[in-house]
């Protein structure tokens, strides 16, 4: 029953493989325009990931996997002796397209391992489709597990976009919110606008509107005040990388919400598939936080807003320490008050 209800909420797709090309829904243009762009080479996919045409940790991993299908096809046209090295170069370029979301590195590494660096486009397509299907299944599993933690009638704050647009479908944090709404646990949603790129205002608010889920857009700085009014019982967010000790990188502004949540007795739930777990990184201090062009801050829609000469600092993620997180929800289970020992015990096989 819940699955059928959730499928009703899961209508948008960020990408699709069609007629031998990867098609990406241009997230720079949403919600004003629905533009599908065809990617015919792996280099085009790498550029699209860098430019946020496709974004969200799981979605960029899936896009990179399909990018390697294109790379395999391109490499097959080269002399035999150059094929493997050209494939590895394409994989490295995709892997480096963005630095923080570990799903990107995970997907590229999995594709390389399964193909043993042999550019076989047919096998690559089977693997890319498997990665996409597994992500979708993980989201449905997490939606049920996360929603079960929420008391009926709760208000929630979410940040950035973690919905169908950021994943293979349904979403991570937004999947939990959808399941929570369907089971009457979530009564009210506040979506932070997510400056500077406005993933919340442009993407999350739109997904929720399409679903008919009662949601209100708030300024990023309004989160603490909403909590102080008693309007939210949970902050529910996704993740770009969860370290071995539970420290979590997510969209800039997540850390502020987590600090405020602790102040006001609001709980914090991080929802992410196990492909976001990075046991090779001990703690958040070692995460490479992406810094993007300061014009994302000083300009709006191509127009300068700040005075000429104003200098920006634009880290687009922050790191929330594990001690501020009440629950990490993955498709393989929930870890409450996460720390290194609990995460190791819950996901032990990932160490081997
Ligand atoms: O810069 P973005 O839009 O790719 O950042 C996305 C986020 O921070 C999401 O919260 C995270 O990737 C999880 S998406 C399910």
Walk me through what this model shows.
The chain is of the alpha/beta class. It folds into 2 domains: 2-137, Four Helix Bundle (Hemerythrin (Met), subunit A); 138-351, Translation initiation factor eif-2b, domain 2 (Rossmann fold), CATH 3.40.50. Helix content is 41%, strand content 18%. The chain is built from 12 helices and 16 strands. The protein has helices at residues 2-9, 42-50, 57-76, 80-95, 102-115, 121-147, 173-182, 199-211, 223-228, 254-264, 295-298, 340-346, and strands spanning 15-18, 21-25, 36-39, 154-158, 186-192, 215-218, 234-237, 241-243, 248-251, 267-271, 277-278, 299-300, 303-304, 317-320, 327-330, 333-336. It has a 7-stranded mixed β-sheet with strand order 6-5-4-7-10-15-16, with helices on both faces. β15 (327-330) and β16 form a beta hairpin. The protein is globular. The model has no long low-confidence stretch (mean pLDDT 97).
Helical proportion, percent range = 40-55%
The CATH homologous superfamily of the largest domain is named Translation initiation factor eif-2b, domain 2
Overall radius of gyration? 20 Å
- What is the beta-strand fraction? 15-25%
Shape: globular
Strand order of the largest sheet: 6-5-4-7-10-15-16
Low-confidence spans: pLDDT under 50, at least 5 residues? none
Average residue pLDDT: 97
Oligomer: single chain
CATH class membership of the largest domain: Alpha Beta
Output the structural class.
alpha/beta
Question: In the CATH classification, which architecture of the largest domain applies?
Answer: 3-Layer(aba) Sandwich
Task: Give the count of structural domains.
Answer: 2
For the termini, the CA-CA separation is 37 Å
Bound molecules: 5-S-methyl-1-O-phosphono-5-thio-D-ribulose
What's the total count of β strands?
16
What's the CATH topology label of the largest domain? Rossmann fold
Q: What's the tally of helices?
A: 12
